[in-house]
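Following up on my earlier thread - several people asked me to post the actual chain instead of describing it. Fair enough. Here it is, all 62 residues.
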Amino acid sequence: MATKTLTVKQRKSIFSALVETQDQGLAVAESKAKVAGEYRLTREQLDLIEKEGLEKDWPPLT
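Reply from S.P.:
Thanks for posting it. Predicted structure:
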């Protein structure tokens, strides 16, 4: 799944899943591997979504 083809809503959902997975106590690397697998993303794609979510203060951060 290419990041460019994902809508903002989809990227926000992925970001939220990543934050929630980390909040459940998984290590950062484990949570990224889990979410990337669930959404069929590369690690690089997930890193870009994470960066965007942090920069824009997406929920659940707000």
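Helices lie at 8-23, 28-39, 43-55. That should answer part of your original question.
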